[in-house]
Design brief:
By secondary structure, this protein is an alpha+beta fold. The chain folds into four domains: 38 residues; 79 residues, no CATH class; 138 residues, Mago nashi protein; 202 residues, Serine Threonine Protein Phosphatase 5, Tetratricopeptide repeat (Alpha Horseshoe), CATH 1.25.40.20. It is built from 19 helices and 17 strands. The strands form four sheets. The protein has an eight-stranded mixed sheet, covered by helices on one side. The protein has a five-stranded mixed sheet with strand order 3-2-5-7-6, with helices on one face. Strands 1-4 form a two-stranded antiparallel ribbon. Helix 4 runs antiparallel to helix 6.
């Protein structure tokens, strides 16, 4: 071999060794990194409570998925459960189920604060089960990450059905009218009767769970009354049965009675058992009569607690996008936005689409609207904000805060989001709000702090109007309306947040001022020196 060839061979050999050493180092590094990032084995689900498909959601034919996030303690019990997304009428059932779960950890597998996710898929099936004695709800839990709950359509019974030859009225007359009656339920469903006559006269009578108790009268345009009545002269309405019901409890009955052209017809609809389009006719009556003014009063001063109800029943200014946002239906929101729905619309109370989204139990509608430029600090006619709407749900929405929402905004009554959370007794939400910078020392127009709101609510005297408060506080006794553990924890957090810290007066020369470009809030940086204790 020539000398030059031997030198080249040695150089090649040394180069190969360097490459092998580099590869070995890379392999060892990858193994070390993989070992550091390796997650411990997942916990084993040992027992589960029976999941429910809420009867009212079955009756309303609501399906969908609910995503949850939960944390386990050392005993394998869920210590916290949070809703990531899902329909607000399905989410509580899923949360309730997860709280019944019991896990077991493999050796050395417990991690403090580790978060796990699960998805509950609620589905309705029109197929009958194979055997008569099989349950109407079937559950499949192959892994704790996914639970499928399949229910049959609620069995509807129809009665007092008309003869096939029944025909709609051929003509209308000056004495025609349509009347809508809503009955009570196990809760605070409004109970009232409203009638609209052909000449435009509107009469109202109510017994409870509304703002206007007793009789009220109003007038609409006769032309509008005739247009409404024409909807009830259609053949499909006169082909309806007289009664629709199903084997569920605690729902309300809506009865529609019409007299047109000398003919009369009554349709009773329990738990939305009638064909879906019947609900549209029922809402048309409420809409034409503007029953919202009697159900909830003047919308310009309406309590934010009614936002949940206003997403389901007619109210001036409420859009389909607002309803979809409160229902957590992001897919429908995207369709409506594509068709030209405006994010900037407000209803008669000045409530924004973002406020309706914040009132839902899902973060997805809020994130979608913020991404489209929705203003987290836009206020209603009385100063309510989206963060306050979220607090009405009993939750603290950090998406809004990250988008620049003013944590300490006060409405015309001086109420803050923290005060609302306190009135709900939500210790977790209070902790998150305080950590984000909520001021527990702020007072409302009557001089009350968030701590006062908590204590008043615990005694059944919450300053925050709550449609369900009649039921929450009933029979609880004196000052035991809130969950005892939540109240104790919330009180401790708020007391600590308002405890005074003795300080010396700062040197004005050392105080610096900055303005938040998003919220316009003024921030002062003040050097604080603790005072020496007296001898």
């Amino acid at each position: 071999m020539r000398p030059g060839t031997r030198k080249e061979a040695r150089r090649s050999s040394r180069s190969d060794m360097s490459v092998r050493k580099l590869l070995l180092v890379l392999v060892l590094a990858c193994k070390l990194l993989s070992a550091q990032n390796a997650q411990p084995p997942e916990p084993i689900l040992k027992s589960v409570g029976q999941p429910r498909y809420p009867a009212l959601t079955r009756a309303a034919r609501i399906e969908g998925e609910v995503r949850l996030e939960f944390v386990l303690n050392r005993d394998g019990d869920p210590s916290s459960v949070a809703v990531i997304s899902g329909h607000p009428m399905l989410a509580p059932s899923a949360v309730e189920t997860v709280k019944t779960w019991k896990f077991e950890f493999p050796e050395n597998a417990f991690q403090e604060g580790r978060k796990y996710e699960t998805t509950f898929a609620y589905k309705l099936s029109k197929e009958e089960f194979e055997q008569e004695n099989q349950p109407k709800v079937s559950v499949a839990v192959t892994t704790f990450h996914r639970v499928e709950i399949v229910a049959r359509w609620a069995d509807v019974q129809a009665s007092a059905c008309p003869a096939p030859e029944t025909q709609a009225p051929a003509s209308s007359g000056p004495q025609d009218f349509v009347e809508l009656s809503r009955s009570g339920c196990y809760g605070t469903c409004p109970i009232y009767t409203v009638r609209i006559s052909a000449n435009g006269d509107v009469s109202w009578n109510s017994r409870m769970y509304v703002d206007a108790i007793g009789e009220r009268r109003a007038t609409i345009k006769a032309e509008d009354a005739r247009v409404l009545l024409e909807q009830f002269r259609a053949d499909r309405f006169w082909s309806l049965c007289g009664s629709y019901t199903q084997n569920i409890t605690d729902s309300s009955t809506i009865e529609t009675h019409v007299e047109i052209g000398g003919q009369s017809k009554t349709v009773s609809n329990y738990a939305n058992s009638a064909p879906a389009w019947v609900a549209e006719l029922e809402d048309a009556i409420d809409d034409a009569a503007n029953t919202h003014r009697w159900r909830h009063g003047d919308p310009r001063t309406e309590s934010l607690s009614y936002i949940f109800n206003d997403a389901y029943m007619p109210k001036p200014g409420v859009t389909q996008l607002m309803r979809a946002a409160e229902h957590g239906d992001v897919d429908k929101m995207r369709v409506l936005l594509k068709e030209g729905a405006r994010v900037s619309d407000t209803d008669a109370s000045g409530w924004t689409t973002l406020m309706y989204a914040a009132a839902s139990s899902s973060s997805s509608p809020v994130q979608l609207l913020l991404g489209m430029g929705a203003d987290p600090n836009e206020k209603s006619l009385i100063g309510d904000t989206a963060l306050m709407a979220s607090a009405m749900r009993g939750e603290f929405d950090d998406d809004l805060v990250k988008a620049g929402a003013n944590l300490n905004a006060q409405n015309s009554a001086g109420v803050t989001a923290l005060m609302i959370l306190a009135a709900k007794g939500e210790a977790d939400g209070i902790r998150d709000a305080l950590k984000a910078g909520a001021n527990a020392s702020l007072k409302d127009a009557k001089g009350r702090t968030a701590l006062d709101y908590l204590r008043l609510a615990n005694c059944g005297k919450s300053p925050i109007r709550d449609e369900g408060s009649r039921w929450v506080t009933y029979g609880k006794g004196k000052c035991r309306a809130l969950d005892a553990a939540d109240f104790t924890q919330a009180e401790k957090l708020l007391k600590a947040a308002v405890s005074p810290v003795p300080t010396k007066k700062p040197d004005a020369a050392n105080v610096t001022e900055t303005v938040d470009p998003k919220t316009g809030n003024l921030h002062l940086t003040i050097p604080i020196v603790a005072s020496k204790p007296k001898q």
